[in-house]
Amino acid sequence: MITLEFFAGLKDYFPTLMEVREAPADIHHLRTYLMSEQSLAKALLQQCRFAVADQFVQEDYPLRPGDVVLVIPPSSGG
Amino acid sequence: MKHLSTDKIDVHALWAQAHHPEAGGVVLFSGEVRNNHQGQEVSHLFYEAAEPMAEKMIAALLAEATERWGLQVAIAVHRLGEVVVMDTAVVVITAATHRQEAYTANQYIIDQIKHQVPLWKCEHFVDGTRAWGGHCSCQHAPLTNKIP
Known about the structure:
The complex is a heterodimer.
Chain A: E1 2-6, E2 17-20, H1 27-37, H2 42-47, E3 49-52, E4 55-57, E5 68-72
Parallel strand pairs in A: 1-5
Antiparallel strand pairs in A: 1-2, 3-4, 3-5
Chain B: E1 4-5, H1 11-16, E2 25-32, E3 36-37, E4 40-49, H2 51-69, E5 73-79, E6 81-84, E7 88-96, H3 99-115, E8 119-125, E9 130-132
Parallel strand pairs in B: 1-5
Antiparallel strand pairs in B: 2-7, 3-4, 4-6, 4-8, 5-7, 8-9
């Protein structure tokens, strides 16, 4: 199982925290899974970055049970 | 120093910390909430962050800029929560031997905060609608994500 944390506009489509029992193999598969879960959020999910342990990770990052994954929409601070 | 704050930013108190005997140029940027965006009246902004990650990234960014431009002082504080029109949402202060380094480093830091650090604004409009993102001169995309 992995835990996902959503922010900003993604919280209009997902809860702040979401557990995924069967962890996708990597970030690429996680993104695909999320787009299938919420097709209305597809465009936003395509722009998102992902982070594990407060570090951005790439599409091929292998997910492991217990990972907490931050799903990060495009930044808009300032 | 914490780089994220739910309290109003005391710009004058930060300015008081920004002086250094070796610094001949001190630049302060205050990002403030304006009352309009693409012709619509803004009532206030709401900011949120992936807080531990954003804190670490801003600290690393200041360290990087300090090293790269030889800064004597590098300060950045960003508001979280509701911020009203004319209030400061973010402050960046840089002090360097000469003004060029202070200006360049300051712009680099605010650009990175806006586009790389996991921080988000939600614009709340006077008509009761809201929209995440935007409000940046770097992004001219029309508002397409307004939510009643």
